[in-house]
Amino acid sequence: MITGALKSKIDKLWEEFWTGGIANPLTVIEQITFLMYARLLDMNERRDEKRAERTGKSFSKRFTQYEQDIRWESFRHLPADQMYKVVKDEVFPHFKDLAGEGSLFAEFMKDAQLMIQKPNLLVKAVNMVSDLPLDSADVKGDLYEYLLSKLTTAGINGQFRTPRHIIRAIVEMLEPEAHYRIADPACGTAGFLAASYEYLLEKYSSPEGVITETVINDKGEQVEQKIYTGDLLHEHRRHVDTDMFHGFDFDATMLRIAAMNLVMHGVAEPDVHYQDTLSQRFSERFPQAAKEGFDLILANPPFKGSLDEEDVDPALLRVVKTKKTELLFVALILRMLKIGGRSATIVPDGVLFGSSKAHQQLRKHLIEDNQLEAVISLPSGAFKPYAGVSTAILIFTKGGETDHVWFYDVQADGFSLDDKRQKIDANDLPDLISQFKSRGMTPADSAQNDRSAQRFWVSKAEIEASKYDLSLNRYREQVHVTEEYDAPKVILARLKALEAEIQQDLEELEGML
């Protein structure tokens, strides 16, 4: 958790960009990301210099002896015009030189461009980024997440930021393990991957590895917060840093933000790539990822518009012949999972009940050739202010067979369902997590399976008979409450009395004229 004072600094930085003429939230985050990267480069160089002094061992330098003036601590004290010239003409081009060092993160930064046009705005931004606690591993991730929370517009391809509390609920239901390979084929800002890492830190912290400290919250109150060090992850550290988290996206800006998000959370070398995962090039460039490469895939793929069929991998079209991205992504995820691998994928409601051949074909494949575990209906305002579309979470395991499917109707997620999304008391997510983890199939065919309740089971046979329709309302029993009305004569008598009263008022009004 970040404190109210730190939030104020970020809010102020945001306002400076806004008043400085940069109004696109994505551009603001990208520019701040570049400046953070410039500062992190200098911080890491200083760390390695100190280590080299102690150990006498050399390291691969990020700055030559002729480039010392472009280090953060050198240029940040320069006058505005001079700083602007150094940053524009030397610091950003230096990012391109670093791309050859082998780090994927550096590769993403090579196309960085300074969009800030005013030297004074750059000075303010540099000073504010200097004040951010980037050396504190405990708050860096939260700090960047708070920055991302300011993304309030959807991308042109139907991308929008998945609410973090919904991501957290999904991660808690799927319970990732330290040896997993986890992927998101349309990772956006890498919210699912970052939340999985946070969950693992918490899960793999010994009692001694949990630090409790007191901070000031937004209301100025003292509250206790726990910091999970993940000390029990030590034996998995190399796997966590290099091979656990895999993200793909075809938006270069999003990839830069995703890489920074994971680095800020503490993943040293996140494996994120520029790639349209629905295209045939995905199998050619990343054969291990494209087929049976992962234990867990968490995703909220874009579901807007259609694709050119010629660009889509023929292997996916053999599973489901369609141009609709929401159907193709589910087929892709099934192919990317190992046998026994699991996924939680957010889909628009149309996937659940669409009557086209492709819709039915995909649902049949999910149920007949795999184990569809759960269909969780989300409230239609859950993705506001980005979109008001109704969605659901499909949880499935590759392979095996479906016997019964568990349905849950989330009616409230702890926030109002309008564009403001303000916090409210009603929240079904804790119950959802608890019920999902403890669900047992024993009551599925018994009287305990109350179809009018918020959660219930439906047999595969019944779903099959309904053309594999997965909409919750198709199987929910509606409880009709009997309404009682007065006898017609009583209602007529009331109407007559009312009419008489109106007539009397009219006569009184006429007498006054």
Give a brief description.
Its EC number is 2.1.1.72. The chain is an alpha/beta fold.
Features:
single chain; 513 residues; Ferritin; Rossmann fold; 9-stranded mixed beta sheet; DNA_methylase_N6_adenine_CS; transferase; N-methyltransferase activity
Q: How would you describe this structure to a colleague?
A:
The chain has 513 residues and is α/β, with parallel strands linked by helices. The protein has three domains: 4-149, Ferritin (Up-down Bundle), CATH 1.20.1260; 158-474, 3-Layer(aba) Sandwich (Rossmann fold); 482-512. Helices cover 45% and strands 15% of the residues. It has 21 helices and 13 strands. The chain has helices at 4-19, 25-55, 72-75, 80-98, 104-109, 119-131, 137-148, 164-174, 191-203, 237-242, 252-265, 280-285, 287-290, 314-319, 325-336, 350-353, 357-368, 429-438, 460-465, 472-475, 488-511, and strands spanning 182-184, 210-216, 222-228, 245-249, 271-274, 294-299, 337-348, 371-377, 391-397, 404-409, 413-415, 423-427, 455-459. The strands form three sheets. The protein has a nine-stranded mixed beta sheet with strand order 5-4-1-6-7-9-8-10-13, sandwiched between helices. It has a two-stranded antiparallel sheet with strand order 2-3. Strand 11 and strand 12 form a beta hairpin. Helix 2 crosses helix 11, helix 4 packs across helix 6 (119-131) and helix 8 (164-174) runs parallel beside helix 18. The protein is globular. Pfam families: HsdM_N, N6_Mtase. Residues 136-483 form the DNA methylase adenine-specific domain. Residues 6-128 form the N6 adenine-specific DNA methyltransferase N-terminal domain. It comes from Marinobacterium aestuarii. Keywords: Coiled coil, Methyltransferase, Restriction system, S-adenosyl-L-methionine, Transferase.
